[in-house]
Amino acid sequence: MHKGISFGLRCLAVAGVAAALAPLPAAAQSAADAAAACSAGTNLPDAVCACVGERAADELNDTQRQWYIHAAGGETDAAQALLGSMSASEIADAATFARTAPMECVRGG
Length: 109
Fold this sequence. Notes:
Blueprint: H1 3-21, H2 26-41, H3 46-59, H4 62-72, H5 76-83, H6 88-106
Helix pairs in contact: 2-3, 2-4, 3-6, 4-5, 4-6
């Protein structure tokens, strides 16, 4: 192979590895964390949990999302600790999300 092409391919390979190792944007990371918690805490298919994760990133604020991640993942002490930093309305919204989002995702939405 020509040296210039070989070098170019090596650069692309290094760039690809660097991109793969780069941290995800915050919204993508929180969606991934919520999806992982859904998978860990339920027997729902991965596609449904991916939907729940995306919805959590879109519909919940940071504290609500962290509460959902801990609650769905079975980390009840951590979830309970976050309740003190949320308003009654935020708690109600997060609880409603946890109750309804998985079934809405099962139904395709």
